[in-house]
Amino acid sequence: xxxxxxxxxxxxxxxxxxxxxxxxxxxxxxxxxxxxxxxxxxxxxxxxxxxxxxxxxxxxxxxxxxxxxxxxxxxxxxxxxxxxxxxxxxxxxxxxxxxxxxxxxxxxxxxxxxxxxxxxxxxxxxxxxxxxxxxxxxxxxxxxxxxxxxxxxxxxxxxxxxxxxxxxxxxxxxxxxxxxxxxxxxxxxxxxxxxxxxxxxxxxxxxxxxxxxxxxxxxxxxxxx
Length: 225
Ligand code: 6GU
Known about the structure:
- Helix content is about 30%, strand content about 20%.
- The protein is α/β, with parallel strands linked by helices.
- Helix 3 (about 95-105) crosses helix 5.
- It is elongated, with a radius of gyration of 22 Å.
- It comes from Faecalibacter rhinopitheci.
């Protein structure tokens, strides 16, 4: 899979993709991440990419031309399953969306800034609009990082233990059960006996019960789905 990210702040997108699972996925050749600086297509000496909004409202809007040029160039070079605009008025990201996007091929992600991008770019090029939650961020970059992380860890081969991603919270609309590691007694806080029993059917049952309990208590809305 190839992910192209268009941004005016490419420096924000360096370190998140340079460590841990997202780095390993690239090193293994399972995903290619290409960050593009929109200012390459900016206008004039200062390579500006934004202008005042029509209608006299406040803030600045990212102009059509730099985005259209960059998106069109990328579309000529690659096929994309989705061209995603990260925006608070998009569809809220959830595990189901991440699962689908992890299977679907190359992705382009466009990060907005200021008051957003000219509506005509959304009409011309964007095929999916994604929000990461009901709050406003100063730009789409953190949304792109979060969306990319949620997708990349699901690509087969990225996570060593193949079953691991399937047992995450949300994969079956249940939160994950508690986990423990050594020692079995830490300052009198003990690991539940069943986990030390070696009785795997019983352990499975206990883990499932714990997941259901935790979900009932913390996120009953998930059980209604
Ligand atoms: Cl993806 N972008 C911005 N700017 N704000 C957001 C968001 C995205 N998701 C929630 N709030």
